[in-house]
């Protein structure tokens, strides 16, 4: 059992209202990701320190994001590299070589560029731009090892546009998705294969979108006209979105419905079996986690997890009593039949991640947690990399040409994928 | 290894087989252990189908590049090399200017050595990723075939990716 602990010590406790702590937690393996939202008061301002305990003594590092020189400066330096003394001779030679460069080779190079760079380099020529729809290029992309998930978030200041955090460049991006409705507030509720599923705050309409390419779809209306709050999960049929995806919503009365992208319709497979206790008190602060075609939802009374296997259509319930001294808990990830929980103690501002079955390091590769702490005087975002055990400050989310820092309201982790289509 | 007289060499069983690779660009020859050379699928296919003579001519690859390829193959044929060692060795091999890297990726493609192809592609991507797109055109001799209007439209679609770039 590994135990990570993040502890915030208060210096002068103050009574503060409307404070928020948000834990955005990606799953610990590449396929699972979730976002956890604690929407009441928690982190007090004052000094804080981090303590981390692990199975073996770990080193604790709190690092500033690697200070990259401004891109303009850097590019000039890089530019000079491309113009070495002999460059003028070799440029002519290169012209020829690049023209003879086999297609799959240059696709292999472009597939390995950071996502943001890929979009910039669409301006190189129309051929580079057309890669987005190229089958061979999407094949190349699957060859490249996936990096950390990104976080698609909505800020309090700007509910109609998203802010995406890219942990590899340690940068916020501000995409516009013109297809998303602007009259409604739509919240990101789930993700799979690079697609993000949105639900409007009236719980009526679902939207699916690739925030990178703007590939977009509004789902047909659900057949059940119940507008109470629902939990949503999303899975892929295969390795990528090309084989389709499924979205499930489940309500507290046990009603559930599944959308299949292949058929573009909702179906009601049946009713909740008796092994799941009703009413189903879903923990809406914790998003569903998807691992290998199975969705996991956090519930309370009894505390634990319910899972739904999209392939077999089987519901299961795991009763996992919370540690008594903790006031609240949230799933971060479960693994197979041995679920593990992320536990957040709001009162003490502790975060613990229990990794039950994840002692094998390969299972936790690529895991990243994002935690946001806020009060009147503090608005701090941090990420924790499970495999390298490294804490990093997340730079403030500021709009381009803006100065005011945006406050994250909610979000979801997703794996950026250029070729995912809604 | 000191060269032994021919008869003794034949007596000492089992003899390590070697292959000679010859760059057709500058006629440089490299004698390598067979199991090292066989990491190239192209060479393996030649050997398997008995097409390989005493000297295997390698067209379009210079001796300088062939030496890098062989270094890579030697490292990866060493069973006692740890993953960390290999990573460091790979990083050393691809610590070259972009033109050498492009030659190297072409060689890895021709000789069909997947691992070398991957590390070299990644290194090329890393060396161009912070360049303005205009410089990328220049380096790779790609012609800008956009009209100014098209260019502006493509850019507007993903304006967020251009933060900090002209």
From TrEMBL, chain A:
Organism: Actinidia rufa
Protein name: Galactose oxidase/kelch repeat superfamily protein
Transmembrane stretches, start-end: none
Superkingdom of origin organism: Eukaryota
Pfam families: F-box (PF00646), FBA_1 (PF07734)
Lineage: Eukaryota, Viridiplantae, Streptophyta, Embryophyta, Tracheophyta
Keywords recorded for this protein, A-Z: Kelch repeat, Repeat
Record has Transport as a keyword: no
Coiled-coil regions, chain positions: none
Bias (Basic residues) ranges: 71-82
TrEMBL record, chain B:
Superkingdom of this protein's organism: Eukaryota
Record keywords, A-Z: Ubl conjugation pathway
Alphabetical list of SUPFAM superfamilies matching this protein: POZ domain (SSF54695), Skp1 dimerisation domain-like (SSF81382)
Any single GO BP term: ubiquitin-dependent protein catabolic process
All residue ranges annotated as the SKP1 component POZ domain in the record: 26-77
Domain SKP1 component dimerisation: 114-161
Pathway entry: Protein modification; protein ubiquitination
Pfam families: Skp1, Skp1_POZ
Function: Involved in ubiquitination and subsequent proteasomal degradation of target proteins. Together with CUL1, RBX1 and a F-box protein, it forms a SCF E3 ubiquitin ligase complex. The functional specificity of this complex depends on the type of F-box protein. In the SCF complex, it serves as an adapter that links the F-box protein to CUL1.
Family: Belongs to the SKP1 family.
Cited PANTHER family: SKP1
Summary of subunit composition and partner proteins: Part of a SCF (SKP1-cullin-F-box) protein ligase complex.
UniProt protein name: SKP1-like protein
Species the sequence originates in: Actinidia rufa
């Amino acid at each position: 059992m590994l135990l990570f602990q993040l502890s915030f010590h208060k210096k002068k406790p103050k009574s503060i209202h409307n404070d928020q702590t948000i834990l955005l937690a990606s799953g610990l393996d590449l396929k699972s990701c979730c976002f956890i939202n604690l929407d009441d008061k928690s982190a007090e301002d004052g000094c804080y320190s981090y303590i981390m305990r692990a199975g073996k003594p770990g080193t604790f590092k709190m690092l500033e994001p690697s200070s990259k020189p401004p891109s303009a400066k850097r590019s000039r330096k890089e530019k000079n590299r491309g113009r070495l003394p002999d460059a003028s001779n070799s440029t002519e030679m290169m012209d020829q070589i690049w023209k003879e460069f086999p297609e799959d080779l240059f696709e292999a190079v472009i597939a390995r560029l950071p996502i943001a760079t890929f979009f910039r380099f669409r301006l190189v020529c129309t051929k580079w731009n057309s890669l987005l729809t190229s089958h061979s290029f999407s094949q190349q992309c699957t060859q490249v090892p996936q990096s950390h998930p990104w976080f698609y978030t909505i800020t309090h200041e700007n509910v109609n546009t998203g802010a995406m955090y890219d942990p590899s460049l340690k940068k916020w991006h501000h995409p516009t998705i013109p297809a998303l409705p602007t009259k409604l507030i739509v919240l990101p509720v789930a993700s799979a294969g690079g697609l993000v599923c949105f639900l409007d705050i009236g719980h009526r309409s679902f939207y699916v979108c690739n925030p990178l390419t703007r590939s977009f779809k509004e789902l047909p209306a659900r057949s059940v006209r119940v507008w109470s709050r629902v939990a949503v999960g999303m899975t892929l049929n295969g390795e990528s979105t090309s084989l389709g995806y499924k979205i499930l919503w489940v309500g507290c009365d046990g009603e559930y419905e599944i959308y299949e992208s292949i058929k573009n319709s909702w179906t009601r497979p049946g009713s909740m079996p008796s092994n799941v206790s009703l009413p189903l008190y879903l923990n809406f602060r914790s998003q569903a986690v998807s691992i290998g075609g199975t969705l996991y939802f956090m519930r309370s009374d009894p505390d634990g997890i319910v899972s739904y296997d999209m392939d077999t259509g089987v519901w299961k319930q795991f009763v996992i009593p919370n540690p008594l001294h903790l006031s609240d808990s949230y799933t971060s990830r479960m693994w197979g039949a041995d679920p593990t929980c992320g536990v957040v103690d709001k009162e003490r501002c502790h975060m613990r991640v229990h990794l039950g079955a994840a002692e094998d390091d390969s299972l936790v590769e690529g895991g990243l947690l994002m935690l946001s702490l806020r009060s009147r005087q503090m608005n701090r975002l941090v990420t924790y990399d499970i495999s390298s055990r490294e804490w990093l400050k997340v730079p403030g989310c500021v709009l381009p040409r803006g100065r005011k820092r945006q406050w994250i309201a909610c979000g979801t982790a997703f794996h950026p994928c250029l070729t995912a289509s809604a | 290894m000191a060269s032994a007289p021919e008869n003794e060499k034949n007596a000492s069983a089992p003899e390590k087989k070697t292959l000679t690779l010859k760059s057709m660009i500058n006629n440089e020859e490299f004698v390598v252990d067979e199991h090292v050379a066989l990491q190239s699928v192209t060479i393996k296919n030649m050997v398997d189908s008995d097409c390989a003579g005493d000297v295997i001519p390698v067209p379009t690859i210079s001796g300088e590049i062939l030496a890098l390829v062989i270094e890579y193959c030697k490292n990866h044929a060493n069973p006692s090399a740890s993953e960390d060692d290999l990573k460091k060795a790979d990083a050393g091999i691809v610590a070259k200017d972009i033109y050498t890297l492009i030659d190297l990726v072409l060689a890895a493609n021709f000789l069909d050595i997947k691992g070398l192809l991957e590390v070299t592609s990644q290194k090329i991507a890393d060396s161009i990723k912070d360049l303005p797109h205009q410089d990328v055109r220049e380096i790779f001799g790609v012609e800008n075939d956009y009209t100014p209007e098209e260019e502006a439209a493509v850019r507007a679609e993903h304006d967020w990716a251009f933060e900090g770039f002209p």
